[in-house]
Each structure stands twice: as C-alpha cells, then as structure tokens.
Amino acid sequence: MTDPRDPAERLSALEADNARLRRLLDEAGLPDSLRHGMRNTMAMLRTVMHRSAESAADVESYVAHLDGRFGAIMRVQAATDAFGDADLHTLISDELMFHLAREGEQATLAGPRVRLRPKTAQVLALALHELTSNAVEHGSLALPQGRIRATWRVNLEVEPPVLSLAWAETGGSGITAPCRRGFGTDVLTEMLAYELGAAVDLHFAPDGLRCAIRVPLTARIGRHVAEDPETAWDGDSR
C-alpha cells in the first residue's frame, strides 16, 4: 500500500480530480465565459500544485503551503464570481486579515480605487499571499513590533497607465535574503512578469522586505476608478 501522504500520490489524485472537473464543465452546457474562467482557475491551481512540490522540503510543509496558496486563489475566485472583478484594497486587506494582521494595527494600506480582472486578481493574490506568509514566518510580522505598509498609485500620464504597488516591512530584525530560491520568489520574479507583464524589485533590508511591483494597467489587467478626492482612500482605518 502506498503512503497516503506521498506527494506523488497527492499530485496524481489532484490531477485526476481536475480532469473529472473539466469533463463535467464540458458536459454541463455552461456559458463559455464561465467555462473559460474555471479552466483558468484550474490551470493556476495545477501550476501551484506542481511548483509547490518542486520547492517543498517535506510533506508537511508541502501540504501546509499548498493549502494556503489554494485558499488565496479560491478567496479571489469567490469575489470575482460575485462581482465580476476584484478590488485591490480588499485583495490586500483580506490576505493580511487571513494571517491575523489587522489594518490600522499591524498594517497600513493607501491608494486609489483599482478594479482587477479575475486572472490578474488571482496572480496578485498569490503574490500577496507569498509576501504575507514570508512576513509571518521569517519577516517583520514574526515580531510584535513588526509592521507592513502597502501603498499603490496609478500613473495616468502614460499609455497604458501603470499601476505601482509598494510593499514595505518594518520592525524586523536581521532580515537576510533566503539561501535558496523558493516558490514565493518564483511567483514574484517570474509569474508576475509572465502573466501580467510586471516588473518587480525585491530588497531584503535588515528590518524587513521591500517589494515594488509595476504593472501596465491594460484592459485585460484592470482599471483605475475615478472618485471624489474627498472620499479617496488615504490609509485611514475608517
């Protein structure tokens, strides 16, 4: 009998489940747009499953990290199913809250309203999950005084507009770059570039990680939502 915790067996079972789900979608007569969205989500889950297995140190860490990554993707899937797209501020605050980092306490968020297309939201949610998980396990959120500030802006003076997101951790101690390249680094440096055309800068400062992400805000990525300056989000925890 094979070990039920064996990663190869888990991968095989998940792949079989994905194949069955694809057949069910094809047979259910669902609208093309819904089938397309589900296929994109399954493709993302499959990529995460395989890449997580490649970088996992042991079965326990593989299962724990895979569960967290799947959860981040599925939370976004639920939001985009309900509203058609996702709000960037909500995307960040929900991921922080999932890791018990409360906005207005350990986290500060500030930026204009930006709505993201479903696939963009999934990729960014995965990147934010990796940033937050790293902060909890190894970075500033591992310490009581640790803080995170996430700010973003949209440059409307260029075509296409550019969304710039800055993630800054403070309050950490002795932060250094990892000794080996893991899945989180791949998400930030490869997946964001491939899926969104993003440019990413990572800097491991002694008190915490700094990450700058710049994404061309084309129609397939998302849109900036103009709003009254008096009601624009400024980082207060109202």
Automatic annotation (TrEMBL):
Q: Which GO terms describe its molecular function?
A: ATP binding; hydrolase activity; protein histidine kinase activity
- What's the domain of life for this entry? Bacteria
In terms of Gene3D superfamilies, this protein maps to: Histidine kinase-like ATPase, C-terminal domain
Catalytic reactions of this protein = ATP + protein L-histidine = ADP + protein N-phospho-L-histidine
Signal sequence interval, chain numbering: none
Provide this UniProt record's keywords sorted from A to Z. ATP-binding, Hydrolase, Kinase, Nucleotide-binding, Phosphoprotein, Transferase
Give the Enzyme Commission number. 2.7.13.3
The Signal transduction histidine kinase HWE region domain covers 34-113
Q: Which InterPro entries does the record cross-reference, listed alphabetically?
A: HATPase_C_sf, Sig_transdc_His_kinase_HWE
| The name this protein goes by in its record | histidine kinase
